[in-house]
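Entry type: protein chain
Record version: 2
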Amino acid sequence: MYQQLRRLAGLSGGVLALCLMTAPVAAQGGPKRYAVTHDRALIVTRDVLGQQGFVVVRVETVKGNQVVYYCRGNQGKGKGQGKLEKMVIRRDGDRIVFVETPPAVLLAIDLRIRL
């Protein structure tokens, strides 16, 4: 009886470890694709960046993709603004894909687009 309980405990520990190791792999899909227009994606992106304390410096169209340049807003105490960063909004068929986007910003954009 005691040996059966030990085997069961060992087996359940192994199954638990296997489940925990495969969860991050399952969560890593490809880039998210949204069925919205370029205009809607840009409006949501500007709004989310503004809410998170970023300032949109400029938006350029390069080969059909929209490149959004942004930086951290005024940080106070004479530190000025943060470094210039970029994200790309590209069209993939009839979908919009966000490229080079920080995870926190992408999560907020995802929530806003799905509303």
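Comment: Residues 1-29 form one domain.
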